[in-house]
Amino acid sequence: MPRSRGSLTLFAFALVAVPTVLVAQTSSTSALGGVIRDGSGKPVAGALVRINSATMIGGEKTTVSAENGAYRFSALPPGSFRISVSAKGLVTQTQNALLELGRTATVNWKLPSANAGATVEVVASTARVDDAAVGQTQNFDTTALATLPVDRTITAIMDLTPGVNGNRAWGGYSGENAYMMDGVNISDPSGGTVWIYPNVDWFSEVQVAGLGANAEFGGYMGGFVNGLVKRGGNTFEGNVSAYYADSKWQSRINVSHPDLQEADKDILPTKNWDVAAGVGGPIIKDKLWFFVSAERSEQQTSPTGAELPQRDQKVMALAKLTWAPTTNTTLEFLAEHDYVGRDRRYIDKYTMPEATQKESAPNHSYSLTWTQTMDSDKVLTVKAFGYSGRYDMPGYGGNALSLDTIDLWQYDPKKPAREFYNNSTYEDFNYRARATVQATFDWFKTGLITSGDSHAFRFGIEREQASDEELERFPGNLNLNATIYQYDDGTLELDGDYLIQGGGWNVRQRVDRLAAFAQDTWRVNDRLTISPGLRFEQFKARFYGGDTLWNKSTYAPRLGVAYALTADQTTMLKAHWGKYYAGYSTYFIDRAIQSAIPMKRYYSWGNYPVIGNVLDPSTWPDHTPGTADNYEYRRVNDLTLVDPNARQPYTIETTVSIDHKFGTLWSATASYVSRDFKDSLVRTDQGVDPKGTYNTFVNPLNGQNFNIWKPGTYYDPILDFSVENHAYVTKNEDSAKRKYEAATVTLDRLLSNSWSMNLSYTHASLKGNIQRADSYDKVYYNPNLQANSYGNLPGVNDHEFKARGLYELPWNMRLSATYTYLSGTHWTPTYRTDSYNSTRYAVNLEPLGSQTYPCRSLLDLRVTQMFNFTKKARMEVFVEVLNALNRQGVTTYITRANTNTNDNSSVYKDYKYPSELDAGRRLQLGARYNF
Fold first, then answer.
1. Which of 66, 95, 122 is the last residue in one of the domains?
2. Under 8 Å between Cβ of 109 and 93
3. Which residues form the signal peptide (predicted)?
């Protein structure tokens, strides 16, 4: 393991020195461009354009307009800019412009004739126009991040965007997003979720996007979120903040269910707090800036019916230096450390505290960025980045044996039923690392095809290596299972049933990725912009020391068109078509090597010994494998080979939108998106099963009969055991379907005259039979899972309304709010059989997504009182009322409906039990000192 970490570090920083520059996963900059004309409308060549910004190190930058009057600044830091344009014999004009992360601000100029020295100050804010972006892209600046009543995580910020909920973006699965910091991927190469946990106070801006993205963007089929880390400035600025919440300030659970005991509705005693500080400023003015930040937090949550809360702790620290050795050169160095610790992870109503896990997850990362401006029309950016970290989740009992009672058993009638005892059922040990070197080259060219056109080219290439090490096993390498029996007189008996040895996995995998793209933003004329692009990616993956098992090359064309329906560009028609490939996940091949997937061996007691006391392991039956009364009777092999012809999953996306701006403050957008997910990877069973049979069961919801397939076993004379006849393969399946469609209307007002507002409504549908493309959707595992498998997929709300706003009250007070209405997501009742040969079988009782959860209506408020001490020093004290309406919508039911659904039964009476729901109304106090 240490050897692999060292090689990754050397690999990353060695590539920085090679002359062949290697791409930006996504942008960490913005751009500014436009056309300069005289009073008669003729292009002005050679006009001098000056820009200044507090976010731009190195002082003023300049360029001159081309023959057709076009000018452009590429690779600028987002922020507020002051622009000045001057030309001989024409009026000098000055204007302020807001440049946003990942967007191009278009500012056109008309300079009338005037006496020398005349200057016009343009007071109105610039119109913000992005030439090709379509739909629901959202940018959140420092003000929004500091004032909105929203969880302090990038995933919570992502959920503010129309069409994104529960980290699922526009029909994609939560593991199909790309999470980035300063434009570099910080995702887990295994499951695709967040790996680095940043403090949102690190960011000057966060962008949530994905729809209509150009060829620079790849590695996702959902959306992406990108946070731009602050870099300091020419003045010292900083803040200290603190948040505190107590469970005494939270409403009691008000959801009803026959199995939801009154005691389950109580909120366990918890205290949540968060303290953070950050400061930035000059070491040498206009030459060397710094930004540093640190945070410590603790959060406790109370799952419904749990005996104790789960406790999460985070420690995060970051330092960034920005150096401008010349006016055309910028170097940035970043170092980051984050630690996540969780006590009693996965505790719930059915799991005793000693059967949970204790997570420990330290991580550190580094990056180095070099930006070089060559002439006024060429910019080269080279970046090296790497992270390395662990997350380990051992059980609290060391190697002590765990007990799974299989069916719920109420040991003490005064306490809730428990299923897991003594120790965690499994334990995990994980290591991840990424090393990335990337480069982009921006080139602005005019008059390439016609005399009046301009082209903003961006080319890039990237080289990345990622490592994934995962070990999962039973504590003590054994898992003891027991069965519940209920007699006619109502007494219960818990009998030893079987134990499992082996299983789990031991994955040690490495992936190499090479990507390249070419993108043009072609301004044909004042109204028409065309954005063609092409992205190439190659993925190679292998187990440590093994041959390459995944070697795929992909080509993703993109084409965007933007047309101004009005001469002043206040109304824009935009359309985009593109192909988006999934990022590589180690799930694609993680079960393809036998040494990584230990065979599971099942042992059984012939006499079903009675467990005297479930809480006392000394009363449990002898669990020594291979004894006369504890014989091995079955082996199950989860080895899953990879089809050599399997293809990288992707989605075909079409987006259309109309944008209209009302003056300088208001804008409205109507958009439509269609996403068709293709080449999903599935795990299928190719084995012939002549001994399999169908058994008839009764649907408890309607009393009708239905069949469940029970696979047979065969005797293996070499192993001398009965073995299930499986032959699992990871492959593409044409019948695997997923299609997303949505229409969205948004209305936005920028902050002016003390208030701002954003409203959106989305109507969406997600239909198909598969939720995810990484082969871990179980629909093709066996015939039972394919019954009633097509319909409305979960994770998408048919109707969604979102609103957020800010209003500055008198007496230095401010009110900010976010509101979300979501119609219920879809779910499906399922049936699970009793245990046959230590296996249970499940089937959908109704077509997929036939049921819906209750709708959700969430209003969060923040009231802030500000105290101004000096021009820069200010204290903000605020109170947040979260879920002010106290709508405790159920977000997850137990969907299993077994034959015995009698509420008076102690077994299986938890159908539609609300296992997860929105937390009730609660208060949070906070303070922030800005200086």
1. 122
2. yes
3. 1-24
E-strand spans in 775-930? 791-792, 799-809, 813-822, 826-827, 830-832, 842-844, 851-852, 856-868, 874-882, 890-893, 914-917, 922-930
18: containing domain: 2-122
Which residues, other chains included, contact 396 with Cβ-Cβ below 8 Å and sequence gap of 6+? 353, 354, 356, 357, 358, 423, 424
Based on DSSP, count helices (H) and strands (E) in the chain, helices before strands.
3, 58
Q: Are 787 and 812 in the same domain?
A: yes
Residue with tokens 């990022």: 583
What are the tens digits of pLDDT across the range 452-488?
899 999 999 999 999 999 999 999 989 998 887 766 6
For 818-845, what is each residue's pLDDT tens digit?
A: 999 999 999 999 988 776 767 778 899 9
Beta strands in 799-873 (DSSP E): 799-809, 813-822, 826-827, 830-832, 842-844, 851-852, 856-868
Tokens representing residue 427 in the block = 């334990």
183 shares a domain with 104: no
The two structure tokens encoding residue 850: 């036939």
Spatial distance between the Cα atoms of 581 and 652, rounded to a whole number of angstroms: 9
Say how far apart CA 726 and CA 758 lie, in whole Å.
Answer: 54
Backbone angles phi, psi at 78, to 5 degrees: -60, 150
Report which of 866, 885, 884 is spatially closest to residue 876, judged by C-alpha positions.
866
Q: Which residues pair with 635 in a beta bridge?
A: 601, 723
Cα–Cα dist 442/457, whole Å:
6
Structure tokens at 563: 């047309």
Q: Please state the domain count of the chain.
A: 2
Four-point Cα dihedral 93, 99, 105, 109, nearest 10: 0
Judge residue 888's burial from the number of C-beta atoms within 10 Å of its C-beta, 0-12 exposed, 13-18 middle, 19 or more buried. Answer: buried
- DSSP one-letter string for 192-234: -SB-S---GGGEEEEEEE-TT--TT--B-SS-EEEEEEP---S
Question: Is residue 131 included in any domain, yes or no?
Answer: no
Cα distances (Å, whole numbers) of residue 363 to 78, 278, 335, 437 = 28, 20, 11, 19
d(CA 574, CA 133): 8
Check: CB of residue 870 under 8 Å from CB of residue 235. no
Strand ranges (E), 490-621: 492-502, 505-523, 528-543, 548-564, 571-581, 600-605
Structure token digits, residue 931: 């200086």
Maximum mean pLDDT: which of 336-350, 626-640, 722-736: 336-350
Residue 12, SS3 per DSSP? helix
Measured distance CA(55)–CA(76) in Å, rounded: 9
Residue 91's domain is classified under what CATH number?
2.60.40.10
Task: Give the mean pLDDT of the chain.
Answer: 88
Q: Is the pTM of this model over 0.85?
A: yes
For residue 326, the cross-strand partners are 329
How would you write 649-692 as a 3-class SS string?
A: CEEEEEEEEEEEEECCCEEEEEEEEEEEEECCEEEEECCCCCCC
Q: Which amino acid is at 420?
A: F
Q: Answer whether residue 199 is part of any domain.
A: yes
- Within 8 A by CB and 6+ apart from 682, the residues are 730, 731, 732, 733, 736, 770, 775, 777, 779, 780
Half-sphere exposure of 479 (CA within 13 A, CB side): 22
